[in-house]
Amino acid sequence: MNDPAAATPAPRYRFRASGVSVSRGGVQILRDVSLSLEPGQAAILRGPNGSGKTTLLRAFAGLLRKDEGEVEVTAADGKAVLDPAALTVYCGPLNAVKFSLTVDENLRFWAALYATPLSEIAGARAAVGLDAYAGRNAGALSTGFCRRLGLARLLLARRPVWLADEPTASLDTASARAFEKLVERHCDNGGVAIIATHDAVAIPHARHIELKAEVAA
Amino acid sequence: MSPLVAIILRDVRLAFRAGGGSFQAVAFFAVVCVLFALAAGPDLTLISRIAAPVLWTAALLATLISLDQVYRADREDGSLDVIIATSDELALTAAAKAAAHWLSTGVPLIAAAPLLAILMNLEADAYLPLMLSLAIGTPALSMIGTFAAALTVSLPRANLLIALIVSPLYIPVLIFGAGAAAAGAAGDPQYAANLKLLGAATLFAAVTAPLASAAALRSNLD
Predict the structure, then answer these.
(1) Angstroms from A149 CA to nearest CA on chain B
(2) How big is the CA angle at A58 (ends B159 and A148), to the nearest 5 degrees?
(3) What percent of chain B has pLDDT over 70?
(4) Which residue, among B103, B140, B133, B121, has the nearest Cα to B33 in the 3D structure?
(5) Would you kindly state where each structural domain of chain B is located, as residue ranges?
(6) What is the mean pLDDT of residues B164-192?
(7) Do A98 and B10 touch (CB under 8 A)?
(8) ipTM
(9) Interchain contact, A94 vs B78, CB within 8 Å
């Protein structure tokens, strides 16, 4: 399998969302949200429960229909890609982990979906500190380990836009710091990351975005 | 490995692991046949006459009870998001899910059918037509069934709804399938015609069901 990312310097990507409005169940949750990120920039999305953080990330990932607005990812030297589902990776509150498969079987499945060479699995597994559990059934992992396994998918996807929803929930302090380092490295490589969280996530040069609580119509 | 092959291998592996659906479908298939045999009483000629239709109906019901989890399990653990987000062509992904369902449910049912046919005192001439009709017809059951599973993926307790959606769509498959099995056993010239119509039903389902499943999955994005 050819692996352009390994051979050439990683391309840098710019993320731009403009005028995004999203409804769920007939109620407009988000109205006219715009956000643009330069290559290597991270955004921390905050807001009270119900302010639409998850909705916004899922809409960015192409997993929810937008009423209006557009999302665009541009390689710094290339063309803009509209509705770039193939350039984003969304990691939500569900970890997408199959409990009756082992840690490595889960990782191999994701690698196949994202067309990532199997040789990258070991690196992703090590980055989230699950090396000692490679052959263990995911159902026998603790909640925090399961979360880490879910986060390994961000690495395996090798996509420029990370959309992480409450990534540090159920992680201990050391793992949360390790996750911050992963985001930092991803941004240093020219990617962008949008992280919705209630925790104290510290990422250098990150934009801080506050979503307002939904105004009842 | 291509993503489609990976989906098929994963689903088949999950189905044969503890808590997977394959064993349950085969067990249910056997239970329905046994209940029919007990209800029909000790008249061996009667049982052997109804054997092929009963086996076909039981295979259909066993397929039906295995459908609910096809997409729901992936939705509940978040895998469906990943599968949709990485899919180049959702209809092909849906076809892969249907193929995996057939490999993990249809094939075990076909394999179990001769054993249950012995129980039902099926005539010796009737085995080949029965197996052939099941082999040609069960892929249609999986295709149509996984479409209903996709349609109801966001509804809680959709099992009965799936049965209601799927039953009318299964009728042609059942008629031609059981018809082929019976005609083949009797040396009836209708045998070939039944098999061809059964094949046509399977081909029609193979073309339309993945497209319909993809549309259903898209409309369930929420």
Answers:
(1) 13
(2) 85
(3) 100
(4) B121
(5) 3-219
(6) 93
(7) yes
(8) 0.87
(9) yes
Superfamily of domain A12-207: P-loop containing nucleotide triphosphate hydrolases (3.40.50.300)
- What is d(CA B66, CA B73) in angstroms, rounded to the nearest whole number? 12
The answer to whether the Cβ–Cβ distance between A89 and B221 falls below 8 Å is: no
**What is the model's pLDDT at position A29?**
86
Question: Within chain A, which residues score under 70 in pLDDT?
Answer: 1-10, 82-83, 213-217
The closest of B52, B28, B59 to B178, measured between CA atoms, is B52
DSSP string over chain A: ---HHHHSPPPPEEEEEEEEEEEETTEEEEEEEEEEE-TT-EEEEE--TTSSHHHHHHHHTTSS--SEEEEEEEETTS-EEES-GGGEEEE-SS----TTSBHHHHHHHHHHHTT--GGGHHHHHHHTT-GGGTTSBGGGS-HHHHHHHHHHHHHHHT-SEEEEESTTTT--HHHHHHHHHHHHHHHHTT-EEEEE-SS----TT-EEEEPPPPPP-
Determine if residue B117 is left, alpha or beta; phi over 0 gives left, psi from -120 to 50 gives alpha, anything else beta.
alpha
Rg (alpha carbons) of chain A, rounded to whole number:
17
The full set of domain ranges for chain A reads: 12-207
Residue A27 contacts B, CB cutoff 8 Å: no
Tokens 């085969």 belong to residue: B26
Q: How far, in Å, CA of B159 to CA of B82, rounded?
A: 24
Question: How far, in Å, CA of A63 to CA of B87, rounded?
Answer: 12
Q: Which residues of B touch A153 (CB under 8 A)?
A: 82
The answer to whether the beta carbons of residues A130 and A103 sit under 8 Å apart is: yes
Distance from CA of B185 to the nearest CA of A (A): 43
Phi, psi of B189 (to 5 degrees): -65, -15
Least CB-CB distance to B14: which of A64, A93, A100?
A100
CB atoms within 10 A of CB B42: 8
Looking at residues B110-124, what average pLDDT do you find? 93
Find out whether B125 and B182 touch, Cβ atoms under 8 Å. no
Residue B80 has pLDDT above 50, yes or no: yes
